[in-house]
C-alpha cells in the first residue's frame, strides 16, 4: 500500500492554526469560573498535534454547585412557567447567534475533533436549525383534554417539564449532539447541567456564551467541564437531578443506568451501532456504492450511524467490492482545515490502535484486506490518520462484524436469500440504524419491517431531519431525540380529574 493509492490532502498553511489555546471555564449560575482547586486539562489537535484547548477540570465542588443552581432555577419557577412564546423567542435568538458565529465554532470543532472543516460548518448550521425547530415545539406543545367522561367530569392531561436534566455528550459530534438535547430540554421548561466530552469541550463553552448573550436567566443552563469521573458520574447519581440524557458508548450508558437506579431517574440513551446496509441484486449500484463509501468514511467512521458493514448478495458481491475500493481511493483525506478534505484525523492515538487491532484480528480470522488496513502518515501533519479500509470475506462471527470499530473500516459480508440478509442484519447486540438497496418497493418495505433498528433508510443513507425522531433499539439505546418525541423525553405527564358540581356519590352513605 503506497500513498499513491489514496487521495491525500497534505498540511495547509500553518498560519491557520491558533496562536494560543482556547480557554474553557465552567458556567455555574450565570458565572464563568475556574475549578476551585485550579485544575485544568489540555486538548491537542488530533490532526496537527498542537495544543488547541486548555479547560478547567471540574470536580465534586463544581458539579455540586452546578446541580444546585439548576435545581434552584427550576424550583423558582421563572423558567418552567415562562410562556412558550418567550421561551421560543430566546431559542430563536440562540439560533441566530449560532449562525453569526458558525465559522468560529466550526474551526474549534475541527481543531478538537479532527473532522473536516466543511463538515463541521454543515453540522453547526444543522445545529442552528435544531434550535429553531425546538422553538417551534415550545410554542405548539400542549396536553390533552377529555370531555367524554360523563356530564359531570372533565379530564386534563398536562405535560410538565421533567425538572433538572443532566446532559452528557461525546466527542464525535459535540455541537450537534448538545443541540439534539438542550434546546428540546429548554423548550419543555427543564433546567440543565451539561458536561461535554473532555476531548471536545470548547464548542459547548461557546454555546454557553451565546446562551448568556441571548438573555437566558442565570442557572437555567450550567456547564461543567471535565471527565466522566467524577463529573459525569456525579450527574448520574445526584438526587437533585431528575433525568439523565446521555450520548456515548454502550458501556458507559450501562454504567449510567446503574448509577441512576437508586434514585430512579429517567434515563435517555443514544449509544453505539453496528449498522448494516443490505444490497440486493436489483439495487442501483451507482447510488448504493456511493452511499456505502459515504456511510463508512463520514467523520472517519467515528459515527454512531457509521454504515460499518455491508451485506451484499453473492451475485453482485465482487462487483460491489471492486467499485467500493475504487471509490475509496478517491476519498480526499488529510488536513481537516482544508475545505477540500472529506475525511480528517482519528480522534486519538489510543483509538487508532484500537481500530488497527480490529483489522489485524479480522485478518487473523480469515478475512482479506482489499484496501488500506493501516495507519497512514499525511505529509506535514503530526496527527494520526487511518487509511480508508475495505475488508472482504468477513463472517458474522468475527469481532469486526459485531463490534463498533468506530473507524474508516468497512466489512463486507454476503448473503443468498432475503431471510439470510435479515438474519445477518439483526445478528448484533446493537439496533441503531439500517439500510436497504433495491429497486423493488416490496423488498424495501419487507426489510424495513423485519430489521431491528430505530431508523431504516431505503435507497439512501444517513439523511436526517429535525422533524424525524432518532434513537436505537436493543443495546443502541432507549428513548428518542428529535421530532415531537425529542420534546416528549423532557416532559412528564400529569393527570387532572375535575368534577363538575356536587355529583360524587358518597363512599360512606348516611344511615
Ligand atoms: P464515551 O461513552 O466514552 O463518553 C461519552 C461521555 O460520557 C463523555 O462526556 C465522557 O466524559 C462521559 N463519561 C465517561 N464515563 C462516564 C461515567 N462513568 N458516568 C457518566 N459519564 C461518563 O463515548 P465517546 O467515546 O465520547 O463517544 C463515542 C461513542 O458514542 C460511540 O459508542 C458512539 O456510537 C456513541 N454515539 C452515539 C450516538 C447516538 O446518537 N446513538 C451519537 C454519537 C455517538
What do you see in this structure?
This protein has 15 helices and 27 strands. The chain is of the alpha/beta class and 511 residues long. The protein has two domains: 279 residues, Aldehyde Dehydrogenase, Chain A, domain 1 (3-Layer(aba) Sandwich); 183 residues, Aldehyde Dehydrogenase, Chain A, domain 2 (3-Layer(aba) Sandwich), CATH 3.40.309.10. Strand 10, helix 6 and strand 11 form a beta-alpha-beta unit. Helix 4 runs parallel beside helix 5. The chain starts with 6 loop residues before the first strand and ends in a 12-residue tail after the last strand. Nicotinamide-adenine-dinucleotide binds next to helix 7 and helix 8.
Summarize the structure.
The protein has 511 residues and is an alpha/beta fold. The strands form eight sheets. It has a seven-stranded mixed sheet with strand order 17-20-21-15-14-23-24, sandwiched between helices. The protein has a six-stranded mixed sheet with strand order 11-10-9-12-13-26, sandwiched between helices. Helix 1 (60-76) packs parallel to helix 7 (228-237) and helix 9 (285-297) crosses helix 10 (314-329).
The domain count comes to: 2
Q: Would you give the CATH topology of the largest domain?
A: Aldehyde Dehydrogenase, Chain A, domain 1
How much β-strand is present in the residues? Answer: 15-25%
CATH architecture of the largest domain: 3-Layer(aba) Sandwich
Number of strands: 27
Tally of helical runs: 15
Secondary-structure content class: alpha/beta
